[in-house]
Amino acid sequence: MKEKDIEEIVLEIKDKSELMVDLAYSSILYDNKTISEEVYELENVIDNLYQKLQRKSLEDVKKGAHKIEDALVLLRIAHAGEQIADAAQEIADVELRDVELHPILKLSIRESDVVFTRVEVEPESILCGKTLGELKLASETGMMIIAMRHKEKWLYGPNKNTKIDSHDILYAKGPQDGEKHLFDLSKGKSNKI
Amino acid sequence: MKEKDIEEIVLEIKDKSELMVDLAYSSILYDNKTISEEVYELENVIDNLYQKLQRKSLEDVKKGAHKIEDALVLLRIAHAGEQIADAAQEIADVELRDVELHPILKLSIRESDVVFTRVEVEPESILCGKTLGELKLASETGMMIIAMRHKEKWLYGPNKNTKIDSHDILYAKGPQDGEKHLFDLSKGKSNKI
After folding, report:
1. Which of B48, B128, B137, B192 falls 20 to 30 Å from A155 in CA-CA distance?
2. B105–A73 C-beta distance less than 8 A
3. Which residue in B11, B95, B97 sits closest to B53, CA to CA?
């Protein structure tokens, strides 16, 4: 496998850190320790990526593959991603310390422009047996799946090849209007996609 | 006007800090100093909100309106939001320092699962004269408008009452599939919404 170049590492830090924030909020909203533990795992992944980036930036600059200015920009953006990851961990920590989130705050988060939701996919749902890529759920409903549980197995940040099965639990984020659409699709109340 | 309670302040910090991250990435992708300056402005707003939250938490706890444990959780979540805001500022700073983002990184960010886009609304577009609430753009296309420019006026984090006019420039974030849909709607190539 080709070694990742430094742009790819920066992008991975960016995407993972944003996923971590979404997972962290979901974990406190749904009192879910499994999700908050995943945020901790991802924080380790990000630390490793950042260290790899630092080493590779120095190597690249030394051999002339990158200019110093370019490498500096990448390091700064990655550093910001690492800060975001730390913040996500701080949020997830609230859940892990067994502190119950005040119901009013839960309600407020749910009333934000962007809401988090959780729904189980019923056997009669049109989503069953299809991949996220086929369904284009994110563009059709506005809801981005951030995590899903298949029996006892968890999947975080699923991609277009991820298949949805009956009884999977979807954790998603998106606009309020999109929540009902995803809910109706998951419950087999609507086939309009 | 009723004074904001501490849950509302925390939610405002949460929403604004996430908007800042999106704006910061947009500013470096589109070399746009106006957007990066807005990130700086918002950082001040967040600092003020955080200070207000600290004062109000202490007052609430003193008069028994909130339990210490509840206030602590709110302070921690708000602190995480403030960290995210700082990270956004660090990203925006790259743009303000006149450092040109490497084209390869721009491309990578554009190839992420979630993309940023910018599009001008043509006079023949179905979007003209309608509000974001009427259009339900976010749930219909997956694209969330994070900023828009109306002539020389900028608007950040528009809400459902925001009206789109001909020649407005929309800055949006969402899944790759959604980008083409928003583009076609804006250019009058599609009326399907």
Report:
1. B137
2. yes
3. B11
